[in-house]
Amino acid sequence: MDAVFKALADPTRRSLLDALYREDGQNLRTLQERLPMTRFGVMKHLKVLEEAGLVVTRRRGREKLHFLNPVPIRLVHDRWVSKYAEPWAATLSGLKHELEKTMEKIFEIYIKTTPERLWQAITDPEMRAKYTFGVGVHSEWTPGSHYEGIPRQLGSPIVEGENLEVDPPHRLVQSFNALWSDDVKSEGTSRVTWEIEQIRDSCCLTVTHDQLREGANNELYGGWPMVLSGLKTLLETGETLTTPGSLMYLESEAWRC
User: Fold this and answer.
1) Is the Cβ–Cβ distance between 207 and 107 less than 8 Å?
2) Residue 174: C-alpha distances to residues 160, 161, 241 (Å)
3) Is residue 155 part of a domain?
4) Region at 167 (left for phi over 0; alpha for psi -120 to 50; beta for the rest)
5) In terms of domains, do 103 and 216 share one?
6) I need a labelling partner for 247 at 20 to 30 A (CA). Which of 15, 55, 82, 87 fits?
7) Are residues 99 and 210 located together in one domain of the fold?
């Protein structure tokens, strides 16, 4: 987390993050126009943000676009902000609101594990339920196969879709249909891509949720930082992570008991 704090300590880098809060997926030229410094200076600051995992980049034709990655900020939050302070933190921070404006969301996290173990955690329903608020995902995991996300406490799916690409243990592309409320059902089909890259004794996991309409309901993608934080905790420690999402699940289980 030292790299995250170092990156956030500089006001210029915070300005770059603010710019990406307002409009995700900007190129270097657009970001440079927002700051009184040279192209080279902006590139140096972006490099620090990328090394801290706060910014990820993607190529679109000849352009290199920059996207905010909120997962490191979520990890800091989960470590130092208690469940009791959560409502106050949400009130004081405009981050969530600012992150909900674009059609594509990219989340990146580093996990000390193997690609095979990470793939198992994504596709095994029992492991999946431990970090996705009790929702196990069931499928044959073959190209074109159907999948369903079924909460233990309900027994019926709250998410479903098709496995568009299945390349274990490297890449999984899925259509995504949310079913847990009429509001999210009306959003229609979006797409989720899981990409695993081994880096020495760890893995870089990138989750891209795209094909979302502008202004799409934030319930579709707002939980990813909590899910990925829980996945990292499970694989690195064997323990489950307490998050607002998991608390809601636990509270519903207690009520049923």
Assistant:
1) yes
2) 9, 7, 25
3) yes
4) beta
5) yes
6) 55
7) yes
Give me the residue label for tokens 């799409």. 216
Q: How many domains does the chain have?
A: 2
Angle at CA of residue 114, ends 110 and 115, nearest 5°: 85
Residues sharing a CB contact under 8 Å with residue 174, sequence separation 6 or more, in sequence order? 147, 161, 162, 163, 164, 191, 192, 193, 194
Helix axes 39-51, 2-9, angle to 10 degrees: 150
Amino acid at 248: M
Q: At what angle do helices 11-22 and 39-51 cross, to 10 degrees?
A: 80
Residues in the chain where the model's pLDDT stays below 50:
96, 99-101, 250-257
The boundaries of the domain holding residue 7 are: 2-68
pLDDT value at position 247? 62
Backbone angles phi, psi at 6, to 5 degrees: -60, -45
User: pLDDT tens across 207-216, in order?
Assistant: 999 999 888 9
Question: 190 and 106: one domain?
Answer: yes
Alpha-helical regions (H) of the chain: 2-9, 11-22, 28-33, 39-51, 71-80, 86-92, 95-98, 115-123, 125-131, 182-185, 224-237, 244-256
